[in-house]
Amino acid sequence: MQCNRFEVQTNKPFVSIILPTVLAIVICLGLVLNFEKTANSTSKATEKPNKTTLISEHLSPYITSDNDINLSKALLSPDFITLFGSSELSTKSEYNSHRFIPKFTNKELVAYGSGGFQSLNILLALKANNEFLKNSNIVILLSPGWFVGSGADGLDPDYLIKTNTESSLNRLLQLAKQDKESTYYVAKRFYEMASSNKIKPSITMEQIINCSNKSNLEMIKGFPNSLTLSAKQKLKSFFRNSFSENSLEFTSHKEAVNAMQNLPTKKVDSFNYQSAKAKSKELLDSSCSTNNWGILDNYYLKYINGKHSTIDKGSIENNVEFEDYKQLLAFINRQNIPAVFVMQPLNPFYYKNLKELTPTLEAVKAEADKYNYPFLDMTVTDSTRYELGTLQDIMHLGDMGWMRINKFIIDQKKLELYGKY
After folding, report:
1. pLDDT tens digit sequence for 126-179
2. Is the pTM of this model over 0.85?
3. If you write DSSP's letter for every residue of 206-256 in order, what string do you get?
4. By the 8 A CB rule, do 337 and 364 touch?
5. Residue 168, class by beta-carbon neighbours within 10 Å (0-12 exposed, 13-18 middle, 19+ buried)?
6. Whether the Cβ atoms of residue 290 and residue 301 lie closer than 8 Å to each other
7. CB burial string 199-231: b at 16+ within 10 A, e below
8. Half-sphere exposure in the Cβ direction for 320 (13 Å, CA)
C-alpha cells in the first residue's frame, strides 16, 4: 500500500502539472501552425502575381522604363483613355484632364507627353505598342505651333533621342512587319535625320532605318562615318534573322504589362460646372490683376508687359510636321483606334495675326475629317470672341480650356459623368 501510495504521490505532479503543460504547448503549437497555414492560403487566394498598378497621372516620355510600361498598360486596358499632348500637360489646373477624368467619370486617363512632343513621337509610341492597341482609346491634343515656324520642321532630333527608350525602339523593331507602311515612313524619317547629322543613331535605330524600302546596302552607305565595319556586319546579320519575337527584352516588357492589377474601387466625387466656372473666374480675377488678357500675372510681367507679337503663318507645303501628322492619322485609322482630336488656341490678345494661320489649321482639321475623327477646334482669331481663362498665358491651357476639353472627351467617349455640366 505504501508503495502504491508512493506511486500515486510521485505521479500526481506529473498528472496535475506537467501533463497539462505539455498538452497546452502542443495545442498552442497546433493553433499557430494552423493559423500560419490559413494565413498563407488566404494570402495566396487574394494576392495577384507581380503586383503592379496603372498610373492615372501625367507620364513624361523622358527615358524611364516605368513610364514606358505604364503607357503600354493604359493602351491595353479598356478602363483607360490615353491622352497625348505636349507642354500643356504640365499645367497645374485641377481640371487638367488627367486629374479631372479619373476623379469625376467612370474611366481612368493617362496623359503622355511633354514640351516638344509632336506627331512623329506619338506615332512611334503607338507603333511600339502595336500589340496592345486592341482596346486602346486615345485623345490627341494638337497645337498650332506644331505646324508653323520651327515646329513645321517636325520633331526636334534631340528630343527624339531623349524620349524614345531602347526598349520602345526595340519593340518597334520587333513589330516592324506589322503595318509596313508606317515602318517605311519612320525608317525614312530616321534616315533623313541621321544622314544630315542631326542625330547619331543607336544600333537599334540603325536597324529600324534599314527597314525602309531602300536596299540594305544603300542605307548602310548613308552612314559612312557613324557605322563601323562590325556594325555593318551586325546589320547584315540582323536582316538574315530579322523580326524575331523571341527577344528577352520584348518578352519581359510584355510580361510586365500583362501582369497588371485590376483597378481598385475609386472614390466618387461630384462635379458642378457652374460652381467650377464661378470658382475659376474668381481665381482668374485675383491671378490676372495686371492685365485683361487672361494671362497670369507672373507670366505677364516676366514675358509680356503690354507687348504684342505675330506668328509665322505657315503652309502645308514642305511642312514636315504636317506629313508626320498625316502618317499618324493613317496609322490610327488602319489600327481602328477610336481617336478624337483637339486643336488648342493661341491668345488673340497677344498674337495679332492669327487669321493668317487659318489656311494651315483648316488643312490640319481637313485631314482628320477624311477619317471622320471628332475634332474640337478651339482656335479664336478675334479677341472679342475669346473666353478669358481658356489659356493661362499665350498658349497653355487654363481652367476654362481644360473644362471645355473634358466636356468634349466625355461626350465623344460617352463617359458617365459624376455630376453635371
Report:
1. 999 998 898 899 999 999 999 999 999 998 988 888 888 777 888 888 887 788
2. no
3. HHHHTTSSS-HHHHHHT-TTT--HHHHHHHHHHHHSTT-TT-HHHHHHHHH
4. no
5. buried
6. yes
7. bebeebbbbbbbbbebebeebbebbeeebeeee
8. 18
Strands (E), 20-163: 58-59, 80-85, 108-113, 138-142
- Scan for cell 546579320, then name that residue: 237
Q: What is the signed CA dihedral for 388, 392, 396, 402, rounded to 10 degrees? A: -60
Q: Which DSSP string corresponds to 266-304?
A: PPP--EEHHHHHHHHHHHHHHH-TT-SSS--HHHIIIII
Question: Bridge-partner residues for 272, per DSSP?
Answer: 420
Report the C-alpha gap between 109 and 131 in whole angstroms.
20
The C-alpha R_g of the chain, in whole angstroms, comes to 30
Cα separations in angstroms, 15 against 5, 10, 19, 28, 295: 15, 10, 5, 19, 90
Residues whose CB falls within 8 Å of the CB of residue 399, separated by 6 or more in sequence, listed in order: 93, 94, 95, 276, 280, 283, 284, 389, 392
Which amino acid would we find at residue 288?
C
Q: How many Å apart are CA 398 and CA 351, to the nearest integer?
A: 17
Distance CA 409, CA 95 (A): 13
Asked if 142 contacts 88 with a C-beta cutoff of 8 angstroms, the reply is: no
Taking 90 as the threshold, does the pLDDT of residue 371 lie above it? yes
pLDDT in tens, 68-79: 788 888 898 888
Q: Answer whether 215's CB lies under 8 Å from 156's CB.
A: no
The residue count for the chain: 421
Q: Rounded to an integer, what distance in angstroms lies between the CA atom of residue 221 and that of residue 207? A: 14
- Cβ-based neighbour number of residue 361 at 10 Å: 19
> Are 101 and 405 a contacting pair, CB within 8 Å?
no
pLDDT tens digits, residue range 288-334?
Answer: 999 999 999 999 999 999 999 999 988 999 999 999 999 999 999 99
* Alpha-carbon gap, residue 390 to 354, rounded angstroms: 16
SS3 375: strand
Return the pLDDT at 352.
95
Distance from C-alpha of 376 to C-alpha of 409, rounded to nearest angstrom: 10
Of the chain, the end-to-end C-alpha distance in Å amounts to 100
